[in-house]
Amino acid sequence: MRLKTLFAGLLFSLPVFTLSAQEKPSFEQYVEQLKQEALDKGFEQSFVDKTFADVKYLKRAVKADKNQPEFKETLDTYLPKRVPEWKVKRARTAYKENLPLLTKISEQYGVQPRFIVSLWALETNFGRIQGKMPIIDAVTTLAYDGRRETFFKKQLFASMKILDQGHISHEKFVGSWAGAMGQCQFIPTSFLAYAADGDGDGRKDIWNNKADVFASIANYLKREGWNNQKTWGRQVLIPEDFDRDLIMPKSRGRSQWLKNWKASQKSLQEWSDLGLTRMDGSPLPNVNVTAALLMPDDAKGRLYLGYDNYKSLMHWNRSYYFVTSVGYLADRIGYPRIN
Q1: Does 174 fall in a domain?
Q2: Nearest alpha carbon to residue 179 among 167, 162, 166
Q3: Is residue 255 part of a domain?
Q4: What total of structural domains would you count in the chain?
Q5: Tens digit of each residue's pLDDT (9 = 90 or more) over 59-105
Q6: How far apart (Å, rounded) are the C-alpha atoms in residues 338 and 122?
Q7: The dihedral of CA 80, 83, 87, 88: what is its sign?
Q8: Going by DSSP bridges, is the β-strand pair 277-278/303-306 parallel, antiparallel, or unpaired?
Q9: Domain range holding 290?
Q10: 41 near 33, Cβ under 8 Å?
């Protein structure tokens, strides 16, 4: 629970009446409050008792939340680390090995298989790295910590709904310190919004079932406006005298970011008329597509034309670097064509 100091730095000459901030409850007391809230939300008493029976405060989750690394990165340093050649080769192999299933999912949801594989590869290294922290413990701990209590309480009650619906057993309900789960690393609220049953067995098992994993990735993108007739974007060159005010400004909030996109986008023909070309100097494609000009790094960094699918990827993870890595790997999976 977030604590606020009511009087900071005040000196009282008379010590009779002093005010102090309300004491924070113990973790055990906080869990009891959560249990009551869960009951108020309609969960059965026996289910609530079972869910919180062995819940533990995870110091490592709080430490991870408070000590996320901050360092200067550029795409030139980021991409080789996130998309090394071995991962490209493994992704192309995984694409070929899973093509029948990927094709089925692609036809159902309208998302190209190479983008499904790219997200799968980058989120969990093809399902190999999913996290081992108990989800209930992690999100309860982070709610109690208080820095983002409202957010993590939402994740807690969403987690309980996932368990109550029978998609995974309590013992196997694990993920990252922040509550990201399964081979596509959905947080609990994203699971409820986007997870899909890819094989029709009545469960959405994004931990072990590739059909569910692929369907969930595809469903997420489709629900966020994906168009399988388009790609994500492309890196471009600009002329020396280019007006850099045409580059889309960055923004912290998604709402403002989308407004910036709408104000900045132009047709490919308009960008061509302004002197933009492909990286080899050849003309941009002659297709009826709009795009925004993006600069993930500073003035001397790479420039990209982002198509509408770029916005769908930014909804998944609002990071220029992440989206660029997804698109780059998807391109490497698709080209040269796999026979």
Answers
A1: no
A2: 162
A3: yes
A4: 1
A5: 999 998 887 665 678 999 999 999 999 999 999 999 999 999 999 99
A6: 20
A7: negative
A8: unpaired
A9: 233-306
A10: no
